[in-house]
Every structure is written in structure tokens, then in C-alpha cells.
Design brief:
With 475 residues, the protein is mainly β. The chain contains seven helices and 28 strands. The protein is elongated.
Length: 475
């Protein structure tokens, strides 16, 4: 894989002042970092040694948070390369924990348990924010050779067959967090919440790790999708469908890094679907500043405050007008609290409730973004002569041929609201939803483009946004 000069410039600071073959059971290091370090080498590494026969390693770190002006993230690498995509990565907790343990028979959430290779390990420190005066970080390492209680945990076996057969609109959440990163719920508690909300599928997307796969989940009727929110200094992206022991997508890429494309290509090669998360956000380094490689299949347009959503919609339309067929998603980005997982959420038209079918339909644009997880989606149909298409389809029509656009919805849910028709990202028509809950529009296409529908409630609040039906002009 090609590695950028910026990444190769990341410094491994300090040297271990000991030549002993067997390191002490407790090691303590202090490092000082400045704002220059934060800007030129976002990720810094502190080496420490692990002796043969070690069965557990506990690493803690502490620093003066300076009222939020210092924020330091944390992770671990076992002996091996530190290059992008390294298999030596053992886990990441960001700023959620100040002490982590990796053992033969268990680990802190966010870290992979298992054998502990002897040799030079590294603590990775993410310099998220550094005060003008700099920051001292103390890292303490304690090891043990006590016998392991049990064998290394393995991934639970999850059913590969469809959870439910047959084509339907399936409701789900694609961006959620657990205690394996900065969420408050266990994987089981999150699944229980999804079942209580009557969702059909749930993607768990913890920051920079997929260790939630270790958790057995009992949730009959609920499809669980393994994911990761890859949290880079140039924005966040979701990777859905990435399964396997110690699997992850590397996040150590600065804004506009040329490595973003190869990293996404490798993830796609493993069967994953890639979506840009909250492209406009008010947290530091959360907005999307990378390019948008062709490996990106989707983009969140409903995550965050109204201004952020409008900016995300603007980016989506700009990409659509360039000919990119990215699928719009709506996600709650759930971390904690009583708010629903499904506010907002998606409806996906799929041939069955299975991971391959759901991901394939998302990639094909067969998605409606919904304000909540309980409302039924509207049905959008576009007819031109003898051909017709639904959300995600492409129609090939003659120049100037009339397009009959039909919108049907459940009257009780959309009564008193408005239906807006958009062509190439601009509103071109609107109508009040009648008691029949059916609205018809007519358009005449002379150039290629795309149609979609926005449904608003009686108070003007967005209730549903369809993905487009694409119009192609026959020669």
C-alpha cells in the first residue's frame, strides 16, 4: 500500500532507557508534546517492552486536561510495523478510558484479547487538542505472568442465513456506538433497544475498532451488522459489513491524505460498504475534508443540527450533479440516553433481511431517509411510457417525454403535510398531501438528471426524503 510522506513523518518519540532482557513489571514514562507536535504529527508513539510469558498488560495514562484544552486519545500496538494498516494494532479507546488491559483471556472493550507477543509494544497517543503551553502525558505500564483463567475468547457464531425472507421495506440504524468506544450501552443493551423500537437491523459502528464482535448478542429477529466509524483527522466514515477477528480499518490519515483511496479500496475488497458520516459537524476534525473517492457509496444527510443537515444535503447534490450516485442516509449516531436509535433512520427495500441483501440495496440507492423509526416510508414511482422506476432505479427516456411522478403514503402519518418534488437538487413543484394520500406530478426531461421527493409534516418538519430515481436520455 502506498504511504504518504505525512504519515511516514510521524515520530516515535523517546527511547527506552534500559537494556535489560526482561523489563520490569512496572514501567513509567513521561512525554511532553506541543501544539507544533499536534499539527505536524497527530499520532505519537511511546515504546515499552513486554517479557516472554506475560499473560496481561495494563496501561494507564494521565495528563492535565486544562479545562478541555488538552484532549489526548489512546490505543495500543503489539510488536510489529507501525505502518498504515498494520496487523499489530490491538485496539483503541480514544479518550473514553484512562486505563486499559489486554490479557490472554479478556480485554477492556475496544481491545482484542489473546496471546501477548514478547518484545517492543507501543502506546499510540492521538493529540486531538493541545493547549498553547503544551501537555505532559504520563504512561504507566504494568505486566503480569499469572496463569490465564481460560483460553482466548473467540468470535461468537452468528447465523449466516436471512433473518427474514422476502422483499420488504426494512427499518434500521446504521450508525451507533457501544462501550467498545464512547457509547454508554453494551452490545446486548443496544440490541435490546433496537428490538424495543421494532427495528429490523442494527449496525454497530464503534470508533476505530470492531471488538464488539466478541459480544454474544441474543436478539431474535434483529439483523446485526458489524461496522466501524473510522475517525480520521479529516472527517469520519462508516465501514459496514467488515467482519473477522482483529479486523479494522486504519484511521491515521490527516486531512486530504492520498492514502484515503487505497484504504477504502482495501475495505471494499473485503466486502464492506463505505459511507461518509456527518460531513458537516461542529466538533473538531469531524467535518469531511478528504476527497470523495469512488469507493464511497453513501453519505449521511440527516445527522446533527438543521444547518449541518442542509450543508450535507448541498454536498450530496453537488456529487449527484457530477454523476456520482451516492445513497443518502439518515442516522441518529446514537451514543447514550433515552433518545431513540431510529430518529432519524433509514428504510431499505431489500429482497430479504440479510447482511448481503441490506448492504447491496443501500449501495443501489433503494433507501428512504426517515425522521423516525416507526413511520412507514412513502412510495415514489416514476413512469415514462411503458417503463417505470422506483427509488434507486434509472429510467431511459426519449427527449421531452413526459414523466409521471406518483407519491403514495399512509394518510394518517402524512395528513396535512406537503410533498415537494426536486429535480437535480432544486425544488420544482409542491402540493399539499390530500386525504387520498396520493400526489401526482408531471415533468418533461430534456437532459439527464434525477428526481426525488421530500415529505414535510403539517408544521414544516421533514418526515421523509427519498433517494433519487435517475433519468437518462436516449440518443
Amino acid at each position: 500500500m502506498r504511504i504518504s510522506a505525512a504519515f511516514l513523518a510521524l515520530a516515535v518519540l523517546g527511547t527506552l532507557v534500559s537494556a535489560a532482557a526482561t523489563p520490569p513489571e512496572k514501567q513509567v514514562f513521561t512525554r511532553h508534546w506541543t501544539t507544533r507536535d499536534q499539527q505536524t504529527g497527530r499520532y505519537q508513539y511511546v515504546p515499552f517492552d513486554v517479557a516472554p510469558g506475560t499473560t496481561s498488560v495494563t496501561v494507564s495514562y494521565r495528563y492535565n486536561r486544562a479545562a478541555g484544552n488538552n484532549v489526548i486519545d489512546f490505543g495500543l500496538f503489539e510488536p510489529g510495523p507501525l505502518a498504515l494498516g498494520s496487523p499489530a494494532f490491538r485496539g483503541w479507546s480514544g479518550g473514553a478510558r484512562d486505563t486499559v488491559t489486554i490479557a490472554m483471556d479478556g480485554a477492556t472493550p475496544g481491545y482484542w484479547p489473546g496471546p501477548l507477543p514478547a518484545g517492543r509494544w507501543h502506546a499510540i497517543l492521538g493529540l486531538y487538542e493541545v493547549a498553547d503551553t503544551g501537555v505532559d502525558v504520563e504512561i504507566a505500564v504494568e505486566t503480569s505472568t499469572a496463569p490465564a483463567v481460560q483460553q482466548s475468547p473467540t468470535l461468537p457464531q452468528r447465523a449466516k442465513e436471512a433473518v427474514r425472507p422476502g422483499p420488504a421495506w426494512y427499518a434500521g440504524a446504521l450508525h451507533t456506538h457501544t462501550i467498545h468506544s464512547d457509547g454508554a450501552l453494551t452490545s446486548q443493551q443496544l440490541a435490546d433497544k433496537a428490538v424495543a423500537e421494532k427495528l429490523d437491523f442494527l449496525a454497530i459502528t464503534d470508533h476505530n475498532n470492531t471488538t464488539h464482535q466478541l459480544d454474544p448478542i441474543h436478539a431474535p429477529g434483529l439483523l446485526i451488522i458489524t461496522g466501524e466509524e473510522v475517525t480520521t483527522p479529516g472527517g469520519h466514515f462508516g465501514v459496514l459489513g467488515l467482519e473477522g477477528q482483529r479486523t479494522y480499518v486504519d484511521f491515521r490519515m490527516p486531512s486530504r491524505s492520498p492514502d484515503i483511496g487505497p484504504v477504502m479500496t482495501a475495505a471494499r475488497a473485503r466486502g464492506a460498504l463505505i459511507a461518509i458520516n456527518h460531513p458537516s459537524d461542529d466538533c473538531l476534525a469531524c467535518s469531511w475534508t478528504h476527497s470523495v473517492p469512488p469507493e464511497v457509496s453513501a453519505i449521511e444527510i440527516a445527522n446533527g443540527e438543521p444547518v449541518a443537515r442542509q450543508l450535507a444535503m448541498t454536498l450530496w447534490d453537488a456529487l449527484l450533479r457530477e454523476g456520482r450516485r451516492l445513497t443518502a442516509l439518515g442516522e441518529s449516531d446514537y451514543h447514550r440516553g433515552p433518545t431513540p436509535l431510529g430518529t432519524p433512520s433509514v428504510r431499505v427495500w431489500a429482497q430479504e433481511l440479510s447482511r448481503p441483501a441490506i448492504l447491496a440495496s443501500i449501495g443501489s440507492g433503494r433507501v428512504v431517509v426517515m425522521a423516525n423509526g416507526s413511520m412507514p416510508p412513502p412510495e415514489l414511482t416514476v413512469r415514462a411510457g411503458r417503463v417505470q422506476g422506483r427509488v434507486g432505479d434509472a429510467l431511459r427516456v426519449k427527449p421531452g417525454e413526459p414523466l409521471q411522478v406518483s407519491v403514495e403514503a399512509v394518510a394518517a402519518d402524512y395528513k396535512g403535510g406537503r410533498v415537494e418534488l426536486y429535480w437535480n437538487g432544486e425544488q420544482v413543484a409542491s402540493a399539499t398531501m390530500p386525504d387520498t394520500a396520493r400526489v401526482e406530478f408531471e415533468r418533461f426531461a430534456t437532459t439527464a438528471g434525477y428526481l426525488r421527493i421530500h415529505l414535510l409534516g403539517a408544521g414544516g418538519q421533514p418526515l421523509a426524503i427519498t433517494n433519487p430515481v435517475f433519468i437518462e436520455i436516449a440518443a
